[in-house]
Amino acid sequence: MLLTLTCYAPNAPDIGYLLGKNPASVFERPFSGGKVWAFYPDVADDHVTVAMLTEIDPIGLVRGPAPLTQLGHYINDRPYVASSLTSVALNTAFGSALAGRATSHSERLSERMRWEVSVGVVACEAGEEFMTRLFAPLGYAVTTTRLPLDLRFSAWGQADLYALKLDGSQTVREVLSHLYVLLPVLDNSKHYYVGEEETAKLLAHGGVWLAAHPERELIAKRYLRYKRPLVQSTLERLAESDPALREAEAQAEESAAATEVAPEPVEATPGLHEQRLNTVMAAIRAVGAHSLVDLGCGEGRLLSLALTERSLTRILGMDVSPVALARAGRRLHVESMAPMQRARIQLTQGSLLYRDGRLRDFDVAALVEVIEHLDTSRLSAMERVVFQHARPQRVIVTTPNREYNVRWEAIGEQRLRHRDHRFEWTRAECQAWAERVAATYGYRWTWQGIGPEDAAVGAPSQMVIFDGNPGAGDANEGEGNEGDATAGKETLA
Amino acid sequence: MSDTSDTSDIRDESEAAASVSAPAEAARVLAIPQLCLVALIGATSSGKSTFAARHFAPSETLSSDGFRALVGDDANDQSVTAAAFDALHYVAGARLRLGRLVVIDATSVKPQDRASLVRLAREHDVFPIAIVFDLDERTLLERNAVRPDRRLSAHIVRRHTQELRRHLRGLEREGFRQVYILRSAAAVDAARVERTPMWPDKRQEGGPFDIIGDTHGCYKELLALLDTLGYQADDQAGRRHPDGRRAIFLGDLVDRGPQVIETVTLVRRMVEGGQAFCVPGNHDVKLARKLAGRNVQITHGLADSLAQLDALPDEARAQWTRDYRAFVDGLVSHLILDDGALVVAHAGMKQEYQGRASGRVRDFALFGETTGETDEFGLPVRANWAADYRGRAAVVYGHTPTPEATWLNNTINIDTGCVFGGRLTALRWPERELVSVAALRTWAEPARPLASAEVATPAETAVETLLRIEDVVGKQIVRTRLAGSVIVEQDRAAAALEVMSRFATDPRWIIYLPPTMSPSETSQRPDWLEYPTEAFAYYRTQGAPRVVCEEKHMGSRAVLVLCRDAATASRRFGVADDSPPGACYTRTGRRFIEDDALDRALMTRLSTALAATDFWERFETEWVCLDAEIMPWNAKAQGLLREQYAPVASAGAAALAGALAMAQAGAARGLDLGALAERLDERAHNIARYADAYGRYCWQVEGLDGLRVAPFHLLATEGHVHADRDHRWHMAELARLAQADPLFVATRYREVNTLDAEDCDQAAGWWEELTADGAEGMVIKPLEFITRGSRGLAQPALKCRGREYLRIIYGPDYTEPANLDRLRSRGLATKRSLAAREFALGIEALERFTRREPLWRTHQAVFAVLAMESEPVDPRL
Question: Which one, A434, B83, B475, B794, has least CB within 10 Å?
């Protein structure tokens, strides 16, 4: 990683005192991520250039002590791009200047000088405009140059890599603290931070200017994401062995990360999910249900509403992801529930593609934004698991209305709302599916939209309610084995 | 003890006459079934515990005193009795479920205590047996008085005795199947316990057998079938097979058909002559009840049997009736044969009931399991126990006519409705071949149409394609031929369930998942992390010196299941009719090509290529499973390249060039930066080499243009898993494919005798050439596909990766001495243990599939591979 700072000022070599680095020598020191060098490639009366160079130890990142092992791959851009590690290096090389101290010439600490900053490579998925939004309010002219991804393979598109140049009048402390705080914010979401206390330091260095920054919320939000511990799930390990899977998982992880900050960031209709859940709850109440199974309960948003519904005495949350279930458990405080409350709810891992006796005898089954995560070729298995074998009295299914996507600028006609969605249906497709399933398994169905109705494309979300006779027609279920086998035997062939 | 009492009247199971034994005599033998619940009944101090210790293992004996001590620290503490009995019942239940004998050592003098034991036995379908210690009061009081551990007041002893005596006669009515009463201390001492096999247990009868479905008086067809099977006339037994084969009749010999009398007589003679076995059918039992004077409805063809019987002269009729009743009464509800591999019963037998005896076991054998509902023809709807069958024993049964005998979960119904104008079918065991003769005519009209192809209801076959959660969640033990039992821990299964559910393709296609592959031991050479020497040495020490070295292609691992056509796919794999003629998936079961049209195009093209080499004919198969690498790398790993590999190259080149320029500028100012500049220069070269390395594995793909498939294992075709062929054979067979279609790539390989140093050197030289040229490296395999070494299964393959290739694994600068030194320490043990287990599981899955075992059995093995893959192992190995 390379960072150069050129300062234009009278008696420019004095800057060495402010930075605490002698222009005549080379500063070299190890820090927690590797090694940092600081030296002056160019010294003149009216300007000096100081270069900070870091060498990140990629093997140390993977094999090193705990916080750094979050970096699972030897192949990563950390050694080359500006990141939180750069901030740590900045603090190592220019710690006193960052803290606003100088051993000599301290009167110049408050002097605004013209600084030209060049950040060798920035990885920023948010784009050039975002970088301008971060630095321009602080008084910099921002110039970015996009790097090619791989000239041999133009079809792969462009890289989210930039050379960043800043030009502005700042005090020495300001310029360093701007870099210290904002370089990690620029860095893309595949962020691996070295430790929580460093995050706290970043915020401390933001000081006054951060409070006045128009993008302070965004800046803070991206910090929050950094703090999120990277879950070393067994799933991740599994994904290691299959690049395709790793990719899919990374995408899902990314979306999950995004969801944590704000639920469904892509569905740019505020409160849509809340509305969806309330609609589902109303449909549960409408049949006077006493038992509910939430198939694909995720983090348990529907479950927490269901728990407030007194008449539901038996609630089962099922999800295929152990990580999601653990999260649901924490969210609902299942461990610390009062015994009466605790007796009402169970969380269990399960799959919609495997026949499961535990799903029987429920009044209502809810599949809220679940089916679109299944490959269409696997839908028939899900249908049999739910409608043939579990066979609740009422099945509530919600799924996006694809037609509505055009109303959201960020999505448009072509894209789906979530990277893990395997399909999204139009209203007609959804209804055709409902009709087929109902006819096959002996249910009646009704359809309704959820969210603000648009004359042309309908509501953003849609719901199908299936009603049938519980338990009928599943003679093939094996659970009833203890039953009386002698019934009607005299009439047997 | 015989089966007689409950065959004569299945409804009177509980009233069955149990033999009440006469007073003691010398060396009295108490016969009990191997699996039953024995209640030792008697007052305190009557010698139950001493008796138990002499005749039963300590683990078989559950004593109330013992459980009082276990739960309450004191064997005499009556206040913990309730908890002690709770625990005792729990343990007894667990033992009975596992098929273990249980002896209850408690006084059990009260009827309600005994009732709970009878209930316990019935719940587990075993007989309750009573051994009663009816000693005179004086003896008991004397013993009680000298007891060192506990002395009870005389009135308790007296009360016990009175209570016992009051109910003694009624014990059999309480449900005890056998009651032995020992009336003196001498009788107790003289008694001997003898364990007898359970009636159905005929494990020692090894076959071969010809199992014949419901006959219903179709005598001519039966003779024709026996002829076809090779049976010859015999004076004694009626029919006998020259090779010693024996027939097994699945019952329903009578009713509906034209020659009930002759049919029964032949079968009875064959059974009595040792040439056949027979299990009772519901019709047989009902006729026997009618002949015993019971009031039964004359329906479902019973009238035909009675009419034929009436036509006999009086004496013959009386004789036949006697013989018939004795014969049917002697039949056992179901039989376990051939070392437990085969179970036969008229209407089927679920796993939990096999080898057990109770009214409901017998009902199940005769009637199967019904739901209590009736269908549109007024016939009972059968509960489809076979759909849930998970037992290891094959169950062969009849009872419900079906147009076609087909296996479902290791069960087969071979009643093909002869009397209704269908066929009379036999299953040859252990060959599992079906032999049948057509009915001469329709002798009776079925209540439900037989001829329609839909009789085997879609639900019945469809259940097969839907897996059950119990088959995969929780701790699983998968038995493999190659590596014994492989244990899948619960958390690994949970991870695999998520991947299988969220990402995997239709499990019907996933008949194999490839094992992970370990690299060779870290090289001793200073500049290399991997070098072939160590791999050669490994196989030498495994006693497998002959190896093949195959070029390792760098793309993405793929399993290909290719069918001759879509119809085959649907027939053999049970996938939808409109499915493509095959499937291609990654090592975690994910679809390789997600675009439907492209996927279909690839499958069709590869299938056509196979046809062009006469593959289907040469292997007499309609499908094949190949282990392959699909190239280029970017075909599947596009996202990874775009988001990880390429940005690192781009960022690295830019950052290092800038840094180098700065260092040089500083050096020009006289700063001490020479070493740093040199280092940055070297790193700039490394990043370029790294970009070269991954670039070589990428090229433009348009549709199928540019795609390359390099198969290296011809894993399986119908009826065969080709793990018995050596790798030379695999390479040669697969090379043919490359000639048929350039989409297929032949793999370069060479054989090496690792005992020959020069041969090894040449192979290493070949490897250096390949890798210098950009190849990933090579895979070294023992010549034999399955090789056992000194300590079990040898590694099926080791990879040895090239120096440049490893940059994309360990990073651009891994070759720097400081980095290389750290990377050398890497543990291979876990990786190798996994590789061996996964290999065994993969082969197991294929073997199960080719044996046409049910889907869940194959799925269990591939699921275990996926679960193994979630073990934490350094992904760079």
Answer: B475
Same domain, A347 and A391: yes
User: From the CA of B267, how many Å to the nearest CA of chain A?
Assistant: 21
B641 touches chain A (CB under 8 A): yes
Nearest to B855 by CA among B578, B592, B641, B575: B575
A366 and A460: one domain? Answer: yes
| pTM listed for this prediction | 0.74
Q: Are residues A238 and A143 in the same domain?
A: no
- Statement to judge: residues A243 and A298 lie in one domain: no
Of B371, B379, B468, the CB nearest to A355: B468
| β partners of residue B552 | B777
Answer yes or no: do A294 and A412 share one domain.
yes
Smallest Cα–Cα separation from B52: which of B196, B188, B179, B198? B188
Q: Which of residues 43-102 of A touch B (CB under 8 A)?
A: 43, 51, 53, 58-59, 63, 72-77, 79-81
Angle separating helix axes B314-329 and B260-272, nearest 10 degrees: 50
Compute the CA torsion angle B221, B226, B230, B234 (nearest 10 deg): -120
Q: Please state the φ and ψ torsions of residue A427, each to the nearest 5 degrees.
A: -60, -40
Greater pLDDT, A227 or B94:
B94
A292 located within any domain: yes
In whole angstroms, give the CA distance from residue A51 to residue A58: 22
Shared domain for A168 and A20, answered yes or no, is yes
Domain of residue A57 covers 2-227
Q: Are strands A2-8 and A47-56 parallel, antiparallel or unpaired?
A: antiparallel
10 Å Cβ neighbour count for B571? 14
**Global ipTM:** 0.80
- CB atoms B491 and A39 under 8 Å: no
Contact A81, B655 (CB under 8 A): yes
pLDDT of B389-434, one tens digit each? 888 899 999 998 888 888 888 899 999 999 999 999 999 999 989 9
Report CB contact under 8 Å: A120, B299: no
Q: Of the ranges A81-95, A267-281, B306-320, B725-739, which one carries the lowest mean pLDDT score?
A: A267-281
pLDDT tens digits for range B672-681: 999 999 999 9
- CA–CA min distance A199, chain B (Å): 25
Which residue type, as a one-letter code, is found at position A216?
A: R
Q: Hey, of A160, A353, A441, A469, which one would you mutate to test binding to chain B, going by the most B CBs within 10 A of its CB?
A: A353
Q: State the average pLDDT over residues A165-187.
A: 91
Least CB–CB distance from B650: residue in A148, A349, A491: A148
